[in-house]
Amino acid sequence: MSILVIAEHDNESIRPATLNAVTAALACGGDVHVLVAGANCAEATQRAAKIKGVSKVLVADAPQLAEGLAETVCAQIIAIAESYSHILVAATAHGKNVAPRIAALLDVAQISDITKVVSADTFERPIYAGNAIATVRSADAVKVITVRTTAFDAALAEGSTAPVESIPAVEAFPRSTFVSREVTKLDRPELTAAKIIVSGGRGLGSGENFAKVLEPLADKLGAALGASRAAVDAGYVPNDYQVGQTGKIVAPQLYIAVGISGAIQHLAGMKDSKVIVAINKDAEAPIFSVADYGLAADLFVAVPEILASV
Ligand code: FAD
């Protein structure tokens, strides 16, 4: 049984989410191969070959794969899919773009957002915003799976020297072309990879307050900034800050929720954080039910005091 993991990469480095997908793939049992589809992607390929537990890296290196367009990447995967019992991608924006196309073209049911591999054909996945866990058994010949990265430890980035095999690149998908990409440049860690997240909610009251109160704390802690949907909808911060059911799923070592009530849709995105600190002036706020440390206080007093003491 061979299992294929689709690498998420920028042609040079491998995105950390791929390492979590490799761990899930190893739990399925079998040889784990990684596909690197890109252009001038020798460096990413070499890094993929070092990931602990990977037994082979397939590389398709061609200009039409440079931008990782889902349509062409998907065609590349379909070209080799029949050799595999499982195809796994991280449940990131990239993975969620690719996986449904693969499943549809293979005429199988996608198994989304798995949090546990019970056996090679049985998986757990959260439903109802994480309030229930479904156990799903698939009889499909090829299991197309997206992996909730926070549920699996990252495989070690070093530890293997897997052989690399070049495979022929597919033609560009004719009906979509890459136009441009706008990448937000962050001085802080990326939200889903950050060890510490300082997250703000509607309690901040404005974008100005968000910047004035939370940014210094995040800077001091070397943390990423996150937000509730209410804070995003109110325009305090851009929507790529959003944590939750319809935002990003995070599980940092430390999550500091400031002025966030703790609606289930927010908890769905952060409740697996190792240590949760909540600051809210309402002692009855639901966020305190998941918090390891809670401070019932006015954030405009508490946060500057914390800042002064770290
Ligand atoms: P509020 O619920 O308004 O809470 C603000 C909190 O700030 C209150 O608890 C208040 O006591 C506290 N506060 C106010 N002033 C202060 C002060 N001075 N000091 C200290 N505390 C103060 N939400 C998400 O976050 N992420 C999602 O992905 C998401 N997806 C959703 C998907 C669906 C389908 C739906 C229906 C909703 C979704 N929501 C999501 C919205 C969610 O239901 C809540 O509305 C939202 O999380 C509330 O954000 P909030 O806690 O910032 O605001």
Write up this protein.
With 310 residues, the protein is of the alpha/beta class. The protein has 2 domains: 2-166, Rossmann fold; 191-309, Rossmann fold (3-Layer(aba) Sandwich). Helix content is 27%, strand content 25%. It has helices at 16-28, 42-50, 70-80, 93-106, 207-221, 229-233, 264-270, 299-309; strands at residues 2-6, 31-38, 54-61, 86-90, 110-114, 116-119, 122-127, 132-137, 143-147, 164-166, 196-200, 224-227, 254-258, 275-280, 293-296. The strands form 3 sheets. The chain has a 7-stranded parallel beta sheet, with helices on both faces. It has a 5-stranded parallel beta sheet with strand order 12-11-13-14-15. Strands 6-7-8 form a 3-stranded antiparallel beta sheet. Helix 7 links the parallel strand 13 and strand 14. Helix 3 crosses helix 4 (93-106) and helix 5 runs parallel beside helix 8. It binds flavin-adenine dinucleotide. Flavin-adenine dinucleotide is lined by residues 201-203, 228-231, 242-247, 259-261, 263, 265-266, 269, 279-282, 285, 298-300. Flavin-adenine dinucleotide binds next to helix 6, helix 7, strand 14 and helix 8.
Give a quick rundown of the structure.
This protein has 310 residues and is an alpha/beta fold.
What's the structural blueprint in terms of helices and strands?
Blueprint: E1 2-6, H1 16-28, E2 31-38, H2 42-50, E3 54-61, H3 70-80, E4 86-90, H4 93-106, E5 110-114, E6 116-119, E7 122-127, E8 132-137, E9 143-147, E10 164-166, E11 196-200, H5 207-221, E12 224-227, H6 229-233, E13 254-258, H7 264-270, E14 275-280, E15 293-296, H8 299-309
Parallel strand pairs: 1-2, 1-4, 2-3, 3-10, 4-9, 5-9, 11-12, 11-13, 13-14, 14-15
Antiparallel strand pairs: 6-7, 7-8
Bound molecules: flavin-adenine dinucleotide.
